[in-house]
Amino acid sequence: MVWRVLADVVVAVHLAFTLFVVFGGFLTWRWPSVSWAHVPALAWGCWIEISGLICPLTPLENQLHRRAGELGYSGGFLSTTLFRCFTRRV
């Protein structure tokens, strides 16, 4: 149970970071001081996507899911998460 909760927390943090990378620029219009956090986050997100590397949070998520008795996933966070969102049946 604890591993599952920790895995879900890491997924939520990963998703929040990804959303901040993508949409954080809009926050900088309202609060320019946010750019001190957004610019490095944007650089990291672009580097991970362009280089084809895996974000360190992805293996951590997979390890926590496995400890919880679940299957991890292969591939990247974005492709897996987006695939789940768009293929989930209502």
Q: How would you characterize the overall build of this protein?
A:
The mean pLDDT is 85. This protein has helices at residues 2-30, 35-51, 57-67, 77-87. It is built from four helices and no strands. By secondary structure, it is mainly alpha-helical. It has one domain (2-87).
Descriptive terms for the model:
single chain; 90 residues; mainly alpha; 4 helices
Mean pLDDT: 85
How many independent structural domains? Answer: 1
The gross shape turns out to be elongated
The tally of strands reads 0
**Kindly, what is the distance between the CA atoms of the first and last residues, rounded to a whole number of angstroms?**
26 Å
DSSP helical segment count: 4
Main sheet properties: none
Enumerate the spans where pLDDT stays under 50 for 5 or more consecutive residues.
Answer: none
**Proportion in β-strands:** under 5%
What is the helix/strand order? HHHH
Structural class, please? mainly alpha
Radius of gyration: 15 Å
Q: What share of residues is helical?
A: over 70%
What is the fold's blueprint, element by element?
Blueprint: H1 2-30, H2 35-51, H3 57-67, H4 77-87
State the gist of this model.
The chain is mainly alpha-helical and 90 residues long.
